Automatic annotation (TrEMBL):
It comes from the Eukaryota. GO terms for cellular component: membrane. It is a multi-pass membrane protein. Residues 3-373 form the Amino acid permease/ SLC12A domain. Its main location: membrane. PANTHER family: AMINO ACID PERMEASE, GENERAL AMINO-ACID PERMEASE GAP1. The keyword Zinc does not apply. GO terms for molecular function: amino acid transmembrane transporter activity. This is Amino acid permease/ SLC12A domain-containing protein. Belongs to the amino acid-polyamine-organocation (APC) superfamily. YAT (TC 2.A.3.10) family.
Amino acid sequence: MGWLVVLPLELVAAAITVRYWDTSTNPAAYVAIFYVLILAINFFGVKGYGEAEFFFSAVKVLAVCGFIILGIVLVCGGGPQGGYIGAKYWYDPGALRNGFKGLCSVFVTAAFAFGGTELVGLAAAEASNPRKSMPKAIKQVFWRITLFYVISLILVGMLVPYNSPELQASDGTARYSPFVIAIRNAGISGLPSVMNVVIMISVLSVGNSSVFGCSRTLVALANAGQAPQMLGYIDKRGRPLVAIVLQMTFGLICFSSASGKQGVIFDWLLALSGLSSLFSWGSICMCHIRFRRALSVKGRGTDELAFTSQAGLFGSWYGVILNSLVVIAQFWIALFPIGGSPNAYDFFETYLSVFVILAFWLGHKIWKRNWKIFIRAKDLDVDTGRRELDLDLLKQELAEERAVLASKPLYYRFYRTLC
């Protein structure tokens, strides 16, 4: 559900971004251009998706690296306006607006921003050698989030106070992106438009990835008997055409931006997508816990797994507990919104995703007529989908790979552990 919602959400966001330069043209015109572009990319199959994402990623990485360098210079007072900034905005007006409740209020937005890393797992199904490529890709996700996401957010927090008039603008245009505000406040001309282009490219990248992720997930659900079989159709070029058409049909919601209520539409779509990311990751963590439990009950170990999570079961339990706490915190925010009294509009805007997920769950139970809630660990299937069916050969190959790694210098082993 999350990926279905992301496409129209990002297309609306892209149209809002363009308003930085053009406020007179109907947003639906730009939405149509972006819609056709993403449709064309995904009909080229995995190769088209990969080439497009390579370009998008290169632009994003260069832009974020440049912003980090620029941000450090500006924080230290090296901008055209001069003056040391440091962490003064963390003291005045403060680091957290509305205290702990304000922090809880942005959990959905943060969940949406962090969503998408599960695409690494989806890509494993189409990788030529996932046993080699996936461990590296998964480790690199952590470093990319830390370096490109967390550091850039810290710098934005240092450069833009939460009470900035531009940040609190009511029309929701991309002119008020904190990255753009940070550069504008420094008095650098021309660069805000460049950063806005990067924001637009990033938005299109997420929309493009949503089509890839959603279509592959729908195929997997169809193959597992949890969705209509027609969604599992894949043509000779490896394209899940029916699933892509369904995703793009749902994406037509983006044309509602022509009503002039882009901000309202964006908020409701974000509410649907953000919380669904929390449920997805909570489910992934629980699946890992149950999978490891099933292996243990069957007398099997992790030595037959090509890759194991570095955080192990602790990481999955941590994820389940933290995601549950965030959902509870969102219920608190939905019931008692900041600066207002309890009302139905704010409640459903914040918590709508929960009811939609429950409706899908109940619908699936009714459709399948399977009311079993819990499957015992000894009855779980832990082998369907394996590429390496000869476990003895796999264990031997893994042991040889570990022996080769152990023979390498310390610095190389340290690098491979991290990356």
